[in-house]
Amino acid sequence: MSSRPKNEDFQRVLDLWMAPEDCGEPIGVFCTTYSFQPFIFEEECLSRYLSLKNKYDKENVAFLIEREEALCKLPFAGVVVDQHCKELSRNLRWDILPARIKNGAMHSKIFVLAWQNYIRVIVGSANLTEDGMRLNQEVITSLESSYEELPNQDFNLSGLIPHLKSILKTANVSFEETSPPHSRVVEFINTIEEKIKNTNKNASTKFLFISPEDTDFPTQVAEQFEGKRKPDNLIFTSPFFDENENLLIPELVSRLTPSSSEVWLTITPGCEIDLVNSSCNLKCPDWSDSTNTFPSNYEVYYNPIEELDEKGESQRPIHAKAYWFENHGTGSGVYIIGSSNLTPSGWGVGGRNNFEANVLFPFEKGTKRKLLKSRYDQLSLDDSQLNGLKLSFKPEMDESSSEKTFSLPDYFNLAWLTIVNEDYYINLRFEGDIDESWEIFLDEEGKNLFLSKNEVSGKTLKKKIEGGVSSSIWVKIEGQLLEWSVIIESSDVLLPPEALRDLNLDDLLHIYLSNRPLHEVIQTIIKKKIEQEEKKDPKQQGGTETIDPHARFRDSKSYLKQCRKISALFNSLKERFEKPIFHKNTLNWLDSGPIGVDKIVESISKVVQDQDALIFYLAELCLELDRISPEQVEGSLSKNVVKNYLINKVNEIKSKYLEEEIKTNTLSEYISDVKIRISK
Predict the structure, then answer these.
(1) What interhelical angle do 61-73 and 518-535 show, nearest 10?
(2) Which has fewest Cβ within 10 Å: 59, 138, 286, 567?
């Protein structure tokens, strides 16, 4: 549950993004949300999930470097958002996939956080927004376990993957014909499906999903009471209610409750209490005179949740959705929390069917029932607090049932970024008939025309772009500018932070010979360069001095020291490759990243002017890579995968550098011997 002062049973939603002990390497995050603010996901959620030490700060080089390294190694991070969302600008190293649903909304709030040894599935009412994570009164639950213990847990994760796949279809993700940009999410979902296959399918706690493919909410609830006495105590907590108060609730209670015995209906809506005027505004329909709506055996009570402080100022809006169905006589029932509002679209009983995610907790009379009820009761006020107050009723309009804002037509399928020979291209995929005129711009102002409908002749178009890379392009249609989210084909498309782009050999020596994290070493390097710049003669200032480690050595002993440093660098590189590697992204980082093998080769090539000396150093590097014996543990890449990757890298260096003509006979013999060794 979300945080509430002075109550240990409530906690901060963001705390659930922190990694548990012994969870292993992070392998991915997949979220669904209705409303979305990218900066919350990036700054607050991902930083906790990745266990970043530095606080978010765009001007803090240490943070930028730490985040860059963590995201480059992360196999996948992505969010599916409802098509109404217009805030899509973000870091391109994680994906946004807009869900386009014709007759409903993508209203599920599911956060799947996966590590090598552990999974956490968070389901509830909170969107990935600042209000959802920090301000609103929300209710959530976390189903989590090591994969090894999943068969012993009292919850059933069955149904999670089919629901996620169904949502992804609305975002044009196919599991049959995977496009390169979508391969990341497909691989992640398939990985999770394999890891949770041993879930306890007999567990009582399970999901209650709503979608166009699922049965409706009351039908799934009624199944829990088959062979049992029907519930006669119904408690509804929802910030939004059916706009037609005479439609939904009477239909639901008639399907769920016994026809003759007394039935108690308790409504717990948000409310605004005005002590000055002795009034209370309940954000729900007026069912106080239940005889006009329900049969005479129904009693209606109100236990509202206060949203305003004593001064009448907005404090914490109620956004929780929770339901309690119980039979008084047997003490058995179900407690349900999640994303479903008490509306036709939220319960899947009307013409509009949302995607909704809930968790159902069955209970019998006893300890579990008391525990669940205490959690529910903490949401609401004591109805005695309404005594003496003048009540008014004004239901809130359902966020997901309101009229849709104008959105992109379905034929705008996918936009992704690629790089060819250092030139950037945007690939645009169109599906179906393009029956409207439109123009695409590279900027939000609609000034930089990129493409028009008349230029599209096929289903997929690749077009070169100039200038910076953006996370969105803009479509002008019927006079409105709409955002079309862009994702990347691979991480190779993106440049590293500026502080990592021009590392020289001396910088790499500092990095590899230090036991400190990369971001801390980079801070030290930058500080030293700034100090050197300040000490320079003002007449010579204008750029940071490039440090040539060889320029400082003039005798054989000094050269020997330098050789030892480079040898130590190679050995440190070897140690990094020998540690368990859990994903190909980490392998790419160690190879072609800003401090990887390619950068080491480039830096040595720039510093060492003597051709024979250069060949000698790179031959030594090849030998070091060839000697690597990768460690393999459960869940890591196999030894053969890493070894084959290294063989290809050694062959690449050999063909580019070790085939050069060598002037020194002794060195020539040595290089020949090296080539024989690595060829084996």
Answers:
(1) 140
(2) 59
Q: Which two tokens stand for residue 269?
A: 């809506």
Distance, in Å, from the CA atom of 267 to the CA atom of 178, rounded to the nearest integer, reads: 46
Three-point CA angle 35, 100, 121, nearest 5°? 55
Residue 3 has pLDDT above 70, yes or no: no
Q: Which residues contact 126 (CB under 8 A, 6 or more apart)?
A: 2, 13, 109, 132, 133, 136, 138, 140, 319
Q: Distance between CA 87 and CA 84 in Å, rounded?
A: 9
Query: What is the number of residues in the chain?
Result: 680
Residues 23 and 145: their CA atoms lie apart, in Å, by 10
- Where helices occur in 81-229 by DSSP H, the ranges are 130, 160-170, 183-195, 217-223
**How far, rounded to the nearest angstrom, does the alpha carbon of residue 488 sit from its chain's CA centroid?**
16
DSSP string covering 501-546: TT--HHHHHHHHT--S-HHHHHHHHHHHHHHHHHHS-GGG-SSPPP
CB 147 within 8 A of CB 195: yes
Nearest alpha-carbon partner for 359 in 209, 518, 219: 209
CB 133 within 8 A of CB 40: yes
**Residue 438 structure tokens:** 């439109």
Q: Report the DSSP beta bridge partners of residue 130.
A: none
CB contact at 8 A, 348 and 342: no
Of 229-233, 395-399, 511-515, the poorest mean pLDDT is in 395-399
137 forms beta bridges with 318
**pLDDT tier, 20 (very low <50, low <70, confident <90, very high otherwise):** very high
Taken in order 117, 123, 126, 127, the sign of the CA dihedral is: positive
Element (H, E) at 81: strand 77-82
- How would you class 347 by CB atoms within 10 Å of its CB: exposed for 0-12, middle for 13-18, buried for 19 or more? buried
How far apart are alpha carbons 370 and 324 in whole angstroms? Answer: 12
- Distance from chain centroid for Cα 270: 30
DSSP string, 167-189: HHHHTT--SSS--GGGHHHHHHH
List, for residues 97-111, the tens digit of each pLDDT value.
Answer: 999 888 889 999 999
Which residues share a beta bridge with 359?
207, 337
Under a CB-based contact definition with an 8 Å cutoff, are residues 470 and 428 in contact? Answer: no
**Is the pLDDT higher at 377 or at 195?**
195
pTM for this entry: 0.88
Give me the residue label for tokens 């049973």. 9
Q: Point out which residues pair with 26 in neighbouring strands.
A: 115
CA–CA distance, 79 with 168 (Å, rounded to integer): 10
Give the phi and the psi of residue 403 in degrees, each rounded to 5.
-60, 130
Nearest one of 102, 31, 182 to 407, comparing CA atoms = 102
B/e letters for 356-390, b = 16+ CB within 10 Å, e = fewer, are bbbbbbbbeeeeebeebbebbeebbbeeeebeebe
Euclidean distance between CA atoms 140 and 142, whole angstroms:
7
Question: What residue type is assigned to position 125 of the chain?
Answer: S
Strands annotated E in 195-315: 205-210, 233-237, 263-267, 270-274, 279-282, 298-302, 305-306
Q: Which of 650, 518, 516 is nearest to 595 (CA)?
A: 518
- 535: how many CB neighbours lie within 10 A of its CB? 9
DSSP-derived letter for residue 137 is B
